[in-house]
Amino acid sequence: MQNITVFFTGSREVTTRPLYRYDRGQRLIFANIALPYAFEVHFSNSETGTSTTQIGTDGGVDIPDQFFNSGADIYAYLYLHNEADDSETVYKVHIPVRDRPEITEEEPTPEQQSAIDQAITALNDAITLTEDNVDLSEQYAEEARQAASEASESASAAERAKDDAEAAAARAHSNFATFYVDPETGILTAHYTPDNMELQFALSDKKHLEVIIP
User: 78-137 pLDDT, tens per residue?
Assistant: First the structure.
């Protein structure tokens, strides 16, 4: 959930920063005004003559995702009830929506979207491992990047991309080195997996790092 905050400093109409067509999970936060815990907000856009009611809580309200589909600007009307059982539109928020190309010709199914999300997570894990462990082969990093490319091609390739990214992450995780410096001797020990190989290094008289031959 992403927050977009509006500050009221005297004016009853405020324009927010722009968002983009197809954005999702946006929450509108009202600042500098006193609100009850629960309140009512009406959402509309420049292409409709009707509005949709959302219940806001704790100073914020979720913007319905469907309002981003057309690319038209969004308007939110803060509608407050008072003790006299009457109501009033007290604030208007203008949310500019910038157009952008369609994501796909067809919306991905929930299963496809879940596979895309998992592929992105697995990819980020793989890239993090390859960047954090400098001894890893560039091959594994390239495999992880290739998985990202496949995930972005189409929703139908998401499952394959997820599997490739997870495999790259697993290989990356199994091929790294750990290092340990003995505080008493100053000897550096490098332990490599999966070969279970160890190398020990020490400083020579010329301050060069040399391998210790048993």
Answer: 998 876 667 888 999 999 999 998 876 666 677 767 766 776 676 666 666 655 555 455
- φ/ψ of 45, rounded to 5, equals -140, 175
The reported pTM is 0.51
